[in-house]
């Protein structure tokens, strides 16, 4: 623990020697596993099976082989929804991460007013998607909204009616809701960085910017991975806000995978294709999490686990 | 460093938390972060401000007045409506569901994450880890009907437990992923020294891994807590009677067939958010110290 | 796998059963009871009833249940009310899991047809034949949307809601014009209003079904009700009618001429912002359901009281074949009885249908809510401030040669979803009329 360098320099051998006791830890994973199997995996198997059937959601379930999969995979809506999902994921990550880090660094000092700021920043997290959607729909209304309120005509745009603007608006609102959470994580992590590192570099004459890039950022590496994991995986199943804000519109501009699934299944009553989309979603999530682990510089563990 | 069981291991000999906080004084003001934070404060507060002032407007002059101007005459009618609609009960239900789901979810996830890291040679545990990873992106909408049937079979329909049980399950995958990433970074030598001291895996988990993982535990607790607090689908499908409603469902009661009573919703949002903001303001120091415990993450 | 359909419960039971936990296995294949999702009342004739919460309907729905329960203490009805969108999700999940209520509230049309095809609802035809007195009390035009394959599966209840053209009289006097009597007049009014910085039409384009009302009227006025009837009947390529292309072109012409308020695609109907545009004078006209009257009255200050709100049936299109008395909208709301309910619960529901739902208090209640009841002979009840509006709505509803149900309700959920999607794109000018027709032909009969 006296090491100042990031803990990546640790040796590998102990991990081998400690592995022989897996029997004694196995039971610890059981409560989570059993719980998750009952409420997660069993329903998921049901969904997998449903993807090979035709079902309107209320009547009889007809086995129909690969029909649903064929319909889903040939639907031009699918690649589009994948693209929208990716876009939301990438853009919301790219907006939230730098902002959260900067705000987190700023808030890390314990000045009274900054603590006050941090309390105010916390509020958006507590609002449900329905409340957020109602608020923003009101503020973005081109006639009764923000622009009228502030007397700035520029703000009276077709925020939710223009494809590009709607996507930008969505990313903005997601950021509005979650930047506070991620800056909170970064705030904690920044306070964790040993002061001596800054003092040493100050003696070397390093400026604030150089310190940020040579000390703060590298020290935050694992926090960035954690926060990115939450953002990326979270954005996959991100559904409520899009549904109440744009319902996927205008047209299909914001119709992400989860929303496409919902509309197919619960609005168009096509449970078969909806189940196929759900399976695709699960696979995308699995792939992403494996990718994230590799990016996290944990190649050794992945190899060990025979990924 | 055999004394790692200290609940607040300091990263360096000189780096006491107090010292950490002082460091910025030595430097120039962080103009970029500062400027951004103030701009962001405005961005965050504008909608909040709108919610608060709207909650004091009547539905009749909601569209007629300037959306950002405070109401010329305050009305408490909306708050009266909201309180009469039993919002306090819904709030308590939401608290029960959130606390009742998050604590067990984080506890079992932590145990599972510990087992997965420590037993990474076990095929069974690796398999379990895969199952958890597969669960990361299960869309709740897709599995809601089977979940509904399971709850009915467990004879729990229309109880708060019906919301709690699946909420726990759906919080597990991401919690396990984040927590196991953290536990992996605990230097292996520390586990070794615990073992040499004769500690059991159970003891090592709570005395070594738990304090060192506190930042991650706090992170997943908040993350899951917020998700469950704001959850809409599970309460909607798995409960029915007004007695079991949670706050997000209660918001829907202010939406009529043809329109939404925006001021009433603003009032209920204000009313249900305020206690938590206060709680957060009071508990922030503890929360932050939770986030800063552990080693150099 | 066999070719036989698997019963839903067996299938999903398989999923639940696979959990293998002894606790679950104990319940075995007996499955959940069909008494209705958590209907707690265990009594012999106890029935459950699910419907929509909130104004304007909930108080009158609750009052009906209360009246019935008071008169029938042995066979109580337990009501549960849900918000509109929440209800749609809840009822679908409940029926999917075989846990629906005894009485299912709905909009009739395509959604009802789906229930019928899935054997979820009782056939009421014979019962109505035996209880002719009940049938006689209800407007006959309201039965259409509750009828599938010539059999009645849902009782029309509550109110008739035609869609009408509302206008702001002040806006018209500002430009010195009269309300439009034809499509041509509408188009010539557009630049006049725009010149005065008043939007010709308010539209909550984000909600999609609001745009749809335009298509419904325009198609009817140009080609009559037959074109959509062919679509409804599932005829191949039924949308490929020159009248459809003509109608779609008219819509896009109006969009291009700035006939709708700027940024209409960002306006959502659920906060009533579209109606606020009309009563605040930012827009001169609005095509909307008759229920909008009550909202404008409540929220628009003195707008309605001072007589500034005008209304009329949608005007004819020059040279169009449609009957100008035709209207579209909701010919009623509908109540079905679940086929999975117990015999006793079904009896209770039928008793509710034949007594409370057609009594005079029911009629008076819905008039009081600001609507035209589906029950006959309500005209004498139209008194007070709203008398003229209610008389006119009843006149439009009863005088219509055809009272067509809104397309999204009439079509199957699958087709309705594609329809709404394409209508939004049409108003965005993202698809051409021909592309629209091609996309819609693709889902005919689905």
UniProtKB/TrEMBL annotation, chain C:
Signal peptide region: 1-25
Xref: InterPro entries: SBP, TAT_signal, TAT_signal_bac_arc
UniProt entry tagged with the keyword DNA damage: no
NCBIfam families reported for this sequence: TAT_signal_seq
Pfam family, one: SBP_bac_1
Stated family: Belongs to the bacterial solute-binding protein 1 family.
Ion transport in keyword set: no
Keyword annotations of the record: Signal, Transport
Organism: Paractinoplanes ovalisporus
Protein name (Swiss-Prot/TrEMBL): Extracellular solute-binding protein
């Amino acid at each position: 623990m006296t090491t100042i360098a990031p803990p990546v320099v640790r040796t590998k051998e102990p991990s081998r020697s400690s592995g022989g006791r897996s029997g004694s830890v196995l039971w610890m994973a059981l409560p989570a596993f059993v719980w998750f199997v009952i409420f997660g995996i069993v329903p998921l198997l049901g969904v997998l099976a449903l993807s090979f059937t035709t079902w309107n959601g209320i009547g009889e379930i007809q086995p129909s082989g690969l029909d649903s999969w064929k319909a889903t995979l040939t639907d031009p809506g699918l690649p589009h929804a994948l693209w929208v999902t990716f876009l939301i994921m990438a853009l919301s990550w790219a907006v939230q991460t730098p902002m959260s880090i900067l705000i987190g660094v700023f808030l890390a000092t314990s000045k009274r007013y900054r603590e006050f700021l941090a309390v105010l920043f916390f509020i958006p997290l507590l609002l449900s998607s329905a409340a957020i959607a109602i608020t923003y729909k009101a503020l973005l209304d081109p006639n009764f909204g923000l622009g009228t309120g502030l007397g700035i005509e520029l703000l009276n745009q077709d925020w939710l009616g223009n494809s590009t603007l709607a996507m930008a608006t969505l990313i903005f609102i997601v950021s509005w809701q979650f930047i506070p959470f991620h800056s909170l994580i970064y705030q904690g992590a920044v306070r964790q960085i040993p002061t001596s590192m800054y003092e040493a570099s100050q003696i070397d004459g390093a400026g604030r910017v150089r310190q940020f890039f040579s000390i703060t950022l590298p020290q935050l590496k694992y926090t960035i991975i954690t926060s990115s994991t939450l953002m990326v995986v979270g954005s996959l199943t991100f559904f409520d806000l899009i549904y109440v804000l744009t319902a996927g519109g205008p047209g299909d501009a914001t119709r992400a995978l989860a929303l496409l699934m919902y509309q197919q299944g619960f609005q168009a009553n096509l449970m078969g294709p909806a189940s196929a989309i759900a399976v695709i979603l699960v696979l995308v999530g699995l792939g992403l999490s494996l990718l994230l682990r590799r990016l996290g510089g944990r190649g050794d563990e992945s190899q060990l686990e025979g990924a | 460093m055999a004394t790692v069981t200290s609940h607040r291991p300091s990263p360096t000999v000189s780096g006491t938390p107090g010292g950490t906080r002082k460091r910025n004084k030595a430097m120039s003001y962080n103009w970029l972060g500062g400027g951004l934070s103030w701009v962001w404060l405005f961005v965050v507060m504008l909608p909040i401000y709108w919610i608060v002032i709207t909650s004091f407007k009547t539905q009749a002059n909601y569209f007629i007045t300037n959306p950002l101007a405070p109401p010329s005459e305050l009305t408490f009618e909306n708050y009266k409506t909201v309180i009469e609609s039993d919002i306090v009960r819904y709030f308590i239900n939401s608290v029960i569901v959130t606390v009742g789901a998050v604590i067990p979810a984080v506890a079992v996830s932590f145990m599972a994450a510990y087992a997965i890291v420590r037993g990474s040679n076990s095929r069974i545990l690796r398999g379990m880890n895969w199952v958890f990873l597969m669960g990361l992106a299960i869309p709740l909408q897709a599995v809601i009907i089977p979940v509904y049937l399971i709850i009915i079979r467990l004879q729990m329909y229309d109880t708060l437990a019906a919301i709690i049980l699946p909420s726990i399950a759906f919080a597990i995958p991401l919690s396990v992923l984040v927590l196991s990433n953290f536990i992996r970074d605990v230097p292996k030598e520390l586990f070794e020294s615990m073992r040499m001291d004769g500690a059991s895996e159970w003891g090592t988990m709570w005395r070594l891994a738990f304090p060192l993982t506190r930042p991650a535990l706090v992170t997943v607790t908040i993350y899951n807590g917020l998700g469950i607090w704001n959850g809409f689908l599970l309460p909607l499908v798995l409960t029915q009677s007004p007695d079991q409603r949670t706050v997000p469902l209660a918001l829907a009661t202010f939406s009529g067939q043809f329109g939404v009573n925006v001021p009433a919703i603003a009032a209920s949002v204000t009313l249900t958010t305020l206690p938590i903001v206060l709680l957060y303001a009071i508990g922030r120091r503890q929360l932050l110290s939770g986030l800063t415990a552990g080693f150099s993450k | 796998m066999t070719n036989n359909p698997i019963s839903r419960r067996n299938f999903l039971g398989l999923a639940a059963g696979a959990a293998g936990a002894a606790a679950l296995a104990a319940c075995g294949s007996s499955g959940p009871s069909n008494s209705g999702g958590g209907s707690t009342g265990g009594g012999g004739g106890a029935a459950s009833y699910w419907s929509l919460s909130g104004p304007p309907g909930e108080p009158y729905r609750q009052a009906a249940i209360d009246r019935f329960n008071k008169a029938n203490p042995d066979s109580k009805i337990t009501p549960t009310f849900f918000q509109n969108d929440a209800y749609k999700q809840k009822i679908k999940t409940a029926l999917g899991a075989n846990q629906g209520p005894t009485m299912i509230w709905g909009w009739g049309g395509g959604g009802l047809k789906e229930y019928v095809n899935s054997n979820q609802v009782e056939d009421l035809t014979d019962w109505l034949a035996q209880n002719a007195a009940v049938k006689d009390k209800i407007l006959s035009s309201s039965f259409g949307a509750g009828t599938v394959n010539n059999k009645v599966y849902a009782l029309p209840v509550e109110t008739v809601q035609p869609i009408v053209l509302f206008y702001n009289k002040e806006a018209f006097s500002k430009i010195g014009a009269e309300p439009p009597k034809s499509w041509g007049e509408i188009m010539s009014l557009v630049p006049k209003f725009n010149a005065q910085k008043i939007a010709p039409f308010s539209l909550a384009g984000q909600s999609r079904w609001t745009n749809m009302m335009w298509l419904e009227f325009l198609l009817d006025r140009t080609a009559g009700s037959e074109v959509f009837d062919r679509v409804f009947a599932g005829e191949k390529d039924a949308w490929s009618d020159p009248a459809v292309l003509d109608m779609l072109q008219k819509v896009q012409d109006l969009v291009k001429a700035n006939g709708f308020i700027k940024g209409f695609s960002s306006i959502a109907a659920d906060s009533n912002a579209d109606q606020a545009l009309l009563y605040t004078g930012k827009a001169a006209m609005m095509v909307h359901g008759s229920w909008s009257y009550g909202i404008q009255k409540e929220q628009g200050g003195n707008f309605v009281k001072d007589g500034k709100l005008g209304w009329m049936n949608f005007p004819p299109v020059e040279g169009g074949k449609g009957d100008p008395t035709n209207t579209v909208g909701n010919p009623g709301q509908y109540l079905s009885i679940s086929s999975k309910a117990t015999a006793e619960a079904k009896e209770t529901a039928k008793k509710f249908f034949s007594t409370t739902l057609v009594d005079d208090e029911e009629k008076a209640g819905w008039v009081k809510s600001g609507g035209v009841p589906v029950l006959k002979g309500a005209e004498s009840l139209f008194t007070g401030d709203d008398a003229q509006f209610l008389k006119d709505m009843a006149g439009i509803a009863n005088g219509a040669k055809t009272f067509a149900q809104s397309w999204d309700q009439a079509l199957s959920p699958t087709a309705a979803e594609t329809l709404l999607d394409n209508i939004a794109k049409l108003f965005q000018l993202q698809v051409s009329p021909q592309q629209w027709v091609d996309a819609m032909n693709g889902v005919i009969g689905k």
